[in-house]
Design goal:
It contains eleven helices and three strands, in the order αβαβαβαααααααα. By secondary structure, it is mostly helical. It is elongated, with a radius of gyration of 25 Å. 33% of the residues are buried. The model has no long low-confidence stretch (mean pLDDT 88).
């Protein structure tokens, strides 16, 4: 068929609401390649005009590469979404505690050094752990994503927001109930709940709406190094005298470590069975 006919076919499909991919390698394919949502040309045998008009160039001239490309694109998008949802969930308690504690007339919980500490935790986690998260096994069995959909759909945002709110309440409870002693001791308990809950948020956001038992255990050294350093920063901040003095914290008793761990688990682990019901409700 003629170049203008190819263009007309692609244009008609797009006007009917379809997402159109067009493959071609010749000069006569260039208008349709440009008009298509995704133009695909060959890398070896295609003309320069076809390659310039296309969005994707197959360097190996193998159509099977399209499947691998789609899989990689879905994987990258999923990891970006999980990272943003983690950032959202973890920043809810930071913002909530900064506002709620003064409003309730309690001594300040988060000092400037604590905010620096928390930012040193949240950004390496979102940048390194979620970037390295393996693709779920059903990735290519999922339906195509609506190109008009938001980067973070509401049905994904809602569980993360609720996780952040429940973690905020758990931290406030730990802080308020231990203010009978010193402020620094109550702060240590609250920070323990916040950071342990933040570690559980990693698992929750990686799982999404799937039960936690269905997610694969990361095998990369990067994950365990970051996860281990974040976990280790908590006792070090209480046991090293210089750090404890700077952060105005004290070592916790074994009983209070157990209470902090229990509150952190209770605030996030409600998502362990999956949030399909919440996803359905928010839609």
């Amino acid at each position: 068929i003629r170049p203008e006919q190819k263009y007309t076919i692609v244009d008609a499909l797009k006007r009917s609401g379809d997402i159109v991919a067009m493959t071609g390698d010749g000069i006569n394919d260039a208008p349709a390649l440009r008009r298509a949502d995704i133009g695909v040309s060959m890398g070896t045998h295609a003309t320069e005009v076809a390659r310039s008009s296309a969005d994707i160039v197959l360097l190996d001239d193998n159509f099977a590469s399209l499947t691998a490309t789609i899989r990689e694109g879905r994987h990258i998008l999923g990891n970006i979404q999980h990272a943003f949802l983690y950032l959202l969930a973890f920043h809810v308690p930071i913002l909530g505690l900064a506002l709620a504690v003064p409003f309730l007339g309690l001594p300040l919980l988060l000092l400037p050094m604590h905010l620096v500490w928390l930012q040193l935790i949240v950004h390496p986690v979102s940048a390194l752990i979620f970037e390295d998260h393996p693709a779920p096994p059903d990735l290519m069995r999922r339906p195509p994503r609506d190109p008009r959909a938001a980067l973070l759909p509401w049905h994904q945002v809602l569980p993360s927001l609720l996780s952040g709110i429940s973690l905020t309440m758990a931290v406030l409870f730990m802080y308020w109930t231990h203010l009978g002693g010193t402020v620094s001791y109550a702060r240590s308990g609250a920070m323990a709940v916040l950071i342990l809950g933040g570690l559980l948020l990693i698992v929750a956001e990686q799982a999404g709406d799937r039960p936690w038992l269905h997610i694969s255990v990361p095998r990369t050294a990067r994950f365990w190094i970051v996860f281990g350093l974040v976990t280790l920063s908590l006792p070090v901040s209480m046991l090293v005298p210089e750090l404890a003095q700077t952060l105005q914290m004290e070592p916790l008793t074994l009983r209070d470590w157990g209470e902090a761990t229990g509150l952190a688990i209770a605030s996030v682990a409600w998502r362990a069975g999956g949030t399909t019901w919440l996803t359905t409700l928010s839609r």
